[in-house]
Specification:
The protein is α/β, with parallel strands linked by helices. It has eight helices and 13 strands.
């Protein structure tokens, strides 16, 4: 998944980014609202982690503007304010959840997973398609009796396909979702990761189809 982290505390931002990247997520960091606005104008995100008190304004104004633009990217507010009225105000403006500072990183990760499941309409952590069970939390795939452990980017790439079977993803779209703004991505990086997933799925009824000039699609074959 691709996250936007809007946080001016560099130490905290680095800590959050490091934990999320260990789970295979791509994280772009904006230290202020101006940078955050520039990111959302040019990039597509699965989740936004939004601090409230920022050097150039109130994160709630960003949230309000985000929702007024009819953008439905889930937003988790990071706030040092513990008053109930502050938390209610953020939820009423369109936040999907909030975490009060200081927080445990494991709790933040769990809240991210819960929000993303709700966004996808998935009530449980595993996804099953064509008899194949994918567990993005545990990071593995059940193909018949075999358990396949997935590397981070394999995991996030398969998560994209499993959340939208039958949808065509261009190579550029996949690159945008798997790599951060600052990553140096080789021309064949996506082909390499798709090739790995194909090997994992070769004994199943699922396959990743190449549509020449268009991209890739997860298909269920009989």
């Amino acid at each position: 998944m691709k996250f936007l982290l809007v946080e001016d505390n560099l130490d905290l931002a680095n800590a959050i980014s490091s934990r999320m990247r260990l789970d295979g997520h791509v994280v772009d960091h904006a230290p202020n609202l101006e940078d955050a606005s520039a990111f959302v104008e040019t990039e597509e995100y699965d989740l936004i982690l939004l601090d409230i008190m920022l050097p150039d304004g109130d994160g709630r104004d960003f949230l309000k503007s985000h929702r007024a633009s009819h953008l439905d990217t889930p937003v988790i507010v990071l706030t040092a304010r513990s008053q109930v009225s502050d938390r209610i105000g953020s939820l009423d403006l369109g936040a999907d959840d909030y975490v009060t500072k200081p927080f445990d990183h494991a709790e933040l990760e769990a809240r991210c997973r819960a929000v993303l499941r709700r966004k996808s309409g998935i009530a449980k952590s595993t996804i099953e398609i064509g008899g194949i069970v994918f567990d993005p939390v545990a990071g593995h795939l059940l193909v018949g009796p075999d358990t396949v452990s997935l590397r981070n980017r394999e995991l996030r790439l398969l998560e994209l396909f499993f959340n939208a079977p039958g949808q065509v993803f261009s190579k550029q779209k996949l690159a945008d979702r798997l790599f951060s703004y600052d990553d140096n991505v080789s021309d064949n990086a996506i082909e390499v990761y798709v090739g790995r997933l194909r090997r994992h799925l070769e004994h199943s009824k699922l396959k990743i189809t190449t549509l020449r000039g268009l991209g890739y699609r997860l298909d269920h074959v009989s």
